[in-house]
Write a structure and sequence with these properties.
Structural class: alpha/beta
Helix content: 25-40%
Bound molecules: S-adenosylmethionine
Oligomer: single chain
Distance between the termini: 34 Å
CATH superfamily: Vaccinia Virus protein VP39
Number of helices: 9
CATH class: Alpha Beta
Shape: globular
């Protein structure tokens, strides 16, 4: 059932995303990786601030608060929880291909956010009903995908969205100074834990979104390393 590209090692875990260790450690890993994103001393608040920087752009560019949101590649639910906080009235569904990450997401949020919904499936073929969401959000997932899967997710997002709905993604920004000027040996090290980084960096997101049936997207940097891209369903 799992696509071949997904059954490989990621983030130095041999089992990739299909195991308890990566699922249980992802929250602290996210906090560690994002601790140095903002000026000043490294802070555990970096991860929250990263999501806030994405959400500020999202809120400013949506015509109204979305009622139904799908969070594709929700992982252990950090992005799903943050979306629910941003839009408290919305019904938010987290979708992920890893049953381990989903189990941790359910456990983590059971006390505080029991209204969240969880769905096991691939972002490119969720099996969720067509035209049933106002917003499809995908955070920190595309850098983990080969080009073919990324394009399939744009198409699935279009299928899932109601007319006038919005797609939004937040991820590494290939145009960021830090990546453009990175020493080749550091980039090689990064690629050893992110097997599809080359394909993500080469992906023409704007063109592929338009090909999938969206209007020309809006793009804005949200940190020195990340970008937010928002596109409205065409027509
Ligand atoms: C780096 S985590 C990001 C999690 C979360 N969105 C966040 O912002 O913290 C990437 C997640 O995407 C999931 N993922 C990768 N490819 C996927 C696919 N094709 N369909 C669904 N989930 C996928 C992985 O299982 C993992 O949980």
């Amino acid at each position: 059932m799992y696509p071949k590209y997904y059954q490989t090692s990621f983030h130095a875990y041999e089992e990739g995303n299909l195991g308890w260790e990566p699922a249980l450690e992802v929250e602290s890993a996210s906090k560690a990786v994002h601790s140095t994103l903002f000026d000043g001393e490294p802070t555990v608040e970096g991860d929250r601030l990263l999501r806030e920087s994405y959400h500020n752009i999202l809120k400013a560019n949506l015509p109204e608060p979305p009622q139904k949101i799908a969070d594709l590649g929700c992982g252990a639910g950090l992005s799903t929880e943050a979306l629910q906080e941003l839009f408290p009235e919305a019904e938010v569904t987290g979708v992920d291909l890893s049953p381990y990450f989903l189990a941790v997401a359910k456990y983590r949020t059971a006390q505080t956010n029991s209204q969240l919904h969880w769905h096991h499936g691939a972002g490119e073929d969720t099996k969720l009903p067509a035209e049933s969401f106002n917003l499809v959000s995908v955070s920190l997932v595309f850098h983990e995908l080969p080009k073919k899967a990324a394009i399939a997710i744009f198409q699935e997002a279009k299928r899932l969205l109601k007319p006038g709905g919005h797609f939004a993604m937040m991820d590494m920004n290939p145009q960021a100074e830090v990546y453009r000027t990175m020493q080749p040996y550091i980039l090689t090290l990064l690629k050893s834990t992110e097997p599809y980084l080359d394909q993500y960096f080469a992906l023409d997101v704007g063109t592929e979104l338009v090909n999938a049936g969206f209007e020309t997207p809006f793009l804005q940097e949200n940190t020195a390393r990340h970008r937010t891209i928002i596109a409205k369903v065409k027509g």
